[in-house]
Amino acid sequence: MPDRRADIAIIGGGILGLAHAWQAARRGLQTVVFERRPRAMGASVRNFGMVWPVGQPSGEMLETALRSRDLWIEVLDASGLPYRPTGSLHAVYNPLEEAVVREFAEIGPGRGYTCEWVEPEEALKRSSALVPDGLRGALWSPGELTVDPRRILADLPAWLAERFGVELQYGSLVRSIGLPRIETSTGVWHAERAIVCAGDEFQTLYPEVFSESGLVRVKLQMLRTVPQQGWELGPSLAAGLTLRFYKSFQICSTLPAYREWVAGNLPEYDAWGIHVLASQTADGAITLGDTHEYGDAPDLFDKTRLDELVLDYAKRFLRLRDWTVAERWHGVYCQHPLQPYFRAEPSPGVQILTGPGGSGMTLSFGLAERTFQLT
Ligand SMILES: Cc1cc2nc3c(=O)[nH]c(=O)nc-3n(C[C@H](O)[C@H](O)[C@H](O)COP(=O)(O)OP(=O)(O)OC[C@H]3O[C@@H](n4cnc5c(N)ncnc54)[C@H](O)[C@@H]3O)c2cc1C
Fold first, then answer.
1. Is 14 in the pocket of ligand 1 (CB under 6 A)?
2. Is this structure's pTM higher than 0.85?
């Protein structure tokens, strides 16, 4: 077969790869996406689908997340893919959690967050899924939206191909990049430029860059209920434990006292990095998670105890029609201990972009736009 050509090659059909493919194609570049699997099976299909600006630290990352959300909406509207622009509620049930949320609602708007404290009655009006007993109030943020990761990763590539003529090479593993030559398991291509969005698997292409990057692998356990027939979750829901997970809340002087309380009272939740989020998929199922295990060789085997901890905590703030668990799985992403994501240029014309940690859905479109603004 003769060598084939494109202006730009994207390696990886996860959300970062697809966001880059869209940015490239809408700039008129002839674009090819290589995905080693017949369909994407990485972190991007295993997540909640939460586009969650309220979790980002103020400043550059919050701005990137807000821009990313606007780009998400643009692409979702253009492609006709479903999403839920429902906003989010962080519900609080103890005085220390309440102090953090009240403080954030007070100082957050001055730092770029659109959010407010709502009293229990108002929180329950916004979400009938919240447990009313002991509810002290909530942080309401209108800006979050939820996409269905499985639908997005399956259908967005087809829309990119149809709308922009993006060439999809699924089931094609990139073996090596020496521009303009790109060797794949299904043949040789030529491209002017390559963007590697291969998650932690970029290690196979650039092992030295990976080992010097400082990136750490993180494993998360997840659950999904059966579809809740005729029942809407409303806003995506979080509770107290989430306040110690997202960097945004670190601006609160009241956070250390709450952290200390969790360490003393819920030590297993600390040991396994558990906080609980609930989002709804297009078919009405509720996605619940998550846990965090750090290390280069994440445990292959899922721990039922961690699922129990997630469900026990979820039941403290969430009321569902049907708690039947239909699916359990885990996902792995990589993240940098200090930086919000990892960007490198291992050779001229080749860029690696990975490591947005637990915020890759949120940041993907904003980061991809930045890639093209930088070059
Ligand atoms: C359980 C879980 C829940 C999460 N929840 C959220 C959330 O709600 N909101 C949020 O913002 N973020 C969330 N995240 C984080 C988010 O999912 C990730 O940051 C994001 O999906 C990373 O996208 P990616 O494209 O870099 O990686 P991936 O989705 O892993 O894609 C990389 C792709 O590259 C392909 N590939 C690798 N090497 C090659 C090669 N040599 N040739 C061809 N193809 C290759 C792989 O097959 C893979 O499909 C969550 C993550 C997990 C695991």
1. yes
2. yes
CA of 43 to the centre of ligand 1 (A): 3
pLDDT at site 1? 63
> What range defines the domain where residue 32 resides?
4-45+150-213+339-374
pLDDT value at position 374? 84
Residue 18's identity, in one-letter code, is L
Ligand 1: residue of 32, 34, 36 to mutate (most ligand atoms within 8 A of CB) is: 36
Question: What CA–CA distances, in Å, run from 55 to 67, 104, 112?
Answer: 14, 12, 12
Q: Within a domain: residue 77?
A: no
- Total domains in the chain come to 2
Dist CA 293 CA 218 (whole Å): 6
In a domain, 75, yes or no: no
Rounded-to-integer distance, Cα 256 and Cα 242, Å: 13
- Taking the centre of ligand 1 as the mean of its atom positions, its distance from the CA of residue 137, in whole angstroms, is 34
The CATH number linked to 241 is 3.30.9.10
Q: What is the torsion angle, in degrees rounded to the nearest 10, for the CA atoms of residue 25, residue 31, residue 35 and residue 41?
A: 0
Residues 108 and 208 in one domain: no
Q: Which pLDDT score, from 0 to 100, does residue 375 have?
A: 76
Which pLDDT belongs to residue 2? 66
Output the pLDDT for position 306: 98
The answer, yes or no, to whether any atom of ligand 1 lies below 6 A from the CB of 335, is no
Q: Is residue 194 part of a domain?
A: yes
Ligand 1 atom index nearest CA of 361: 11
Residue 24: which CATH number?
Answer: 3.50.50.60
Choose which residue among 33, 39, 45, 48 to substitute to test ligand 1 binding: the one with the highest number of ligand atoms within 8 A of its C-beta: 48
- And the tokens for 40? 């994407």
Cα–ligand 1 centroid distance for 204 (angstroms): 16
pLDDT-flagged residues of the chain (< 70)? 1-2
| Class of residue 21 by CB neighbours under 10 A (exposed 0-12, middle 13-18, buried 19+) | buried
Q: Which residue among 20, 35, 156 is best mutated to probe the pocket of ligand 1, counting the most ligand atoms within 8 A of its Cβ?
A: 35
Task: Determine, yes or no, domain membership for 74.
Answer: no
Ligand 1 geometric centre to CA of 60 (Å) = 22
Cis peptide before 312 (omega within 30 of 0): no
